[in-house]
User: Which sequence fits this backbone?
């Protein structure tokens, strides 16, 4: 990648959803410009950075507090050999907790070897099992006949307000994705429900990860070099750095 091709976070526009959400019509020039900005951001960078007026940092902080408390509570007994009731391998870990070293990215050695040294991931070309924990919480209704419509898992040791807090943050992210999907469709010259009509009833998952920084030293691979299988993945703000995104120019 040449010096001219390098992209920093400042180069990627932040799209404020407020204008789109408050608009009387999607035909206005301002809305059309915003929607084009969303579609072009995905096309050029592979990511889109948004500001959603329905979300504030307190929401984000409360959610992270909840997950820090959960992972702290369950990790110690797990390391001591206890079997966690929240872990559901019989459901392919698609609901409830997933302990460390259960997930492993697919092998992307061919791709990794095409990257320049400064752009290569820390992950080895031969993937290793991730050091992260995860918790899957379903958001939205799933068709009863869906093969992956497994029962929701509420932590066995009990955390006050778990369902309410998980749903609160999960639906905020869910709603943001639906708005962005509408805007992306309009920016591509499609009907605004082109993507959202396909998302209804989908396997939407709130999937927080837990990184044990005391157990794992500097350089640990919490999540190997991978691509997501979903239509769109959305992240809130983390308290720690370490998540890298490879843009479409690598």
Assistant:
């Amino acid at each position: 990648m040449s010096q001219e091709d390098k992209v920093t976070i400042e180069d990627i526009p932040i799209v404020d959803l407020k204008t789109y959400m408050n608009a009387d019509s999607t035909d206005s020039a301002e809305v059309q410009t915003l929607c084009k900005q969303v579609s072009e951001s995905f096309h050029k960078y592979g990511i889109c950075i948004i500001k959603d007026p329905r979300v504030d940092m307190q929401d984000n902080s409360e959610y992270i507090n909840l997950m820090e408390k959960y992972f702290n509570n369950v990790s110690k007994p797990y390391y001591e050999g206890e079997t966690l009731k929240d872990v559901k391998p019989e459901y392919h870990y698609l609901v409830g907790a997933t302990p460390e070293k259960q997930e492993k990215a697919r092998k992307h050695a061919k791709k990794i070897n095409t990257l320049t040294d400064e752009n290569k991931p820390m992950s080895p070309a031969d993937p290793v099992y991730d050091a992260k924990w995860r918790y899957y919480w379903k958001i939205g209704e799933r068709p009863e006949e869906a093969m992956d419509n497994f029962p929701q898992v509420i932590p066995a040791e009990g955390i006050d307000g778990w369902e309410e807090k998980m749903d609160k943050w999960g639906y905020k992210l869910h709603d943001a994705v639906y708005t962005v999907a509408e805007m992306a469709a309009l920016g591509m010259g499609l009907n605004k429900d082109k993507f959202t009509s396909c998302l209804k009833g989908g396997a939407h998952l709130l999937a927080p990860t837990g990184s044990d920084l005391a157990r794992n030293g500097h350089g640990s691979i919490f999540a190997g070099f991978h691509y997501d299988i979903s239509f769109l993945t959305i992240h809130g703000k983390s308290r720690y750095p370490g998540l890298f995104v490879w843009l479409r120019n690598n």
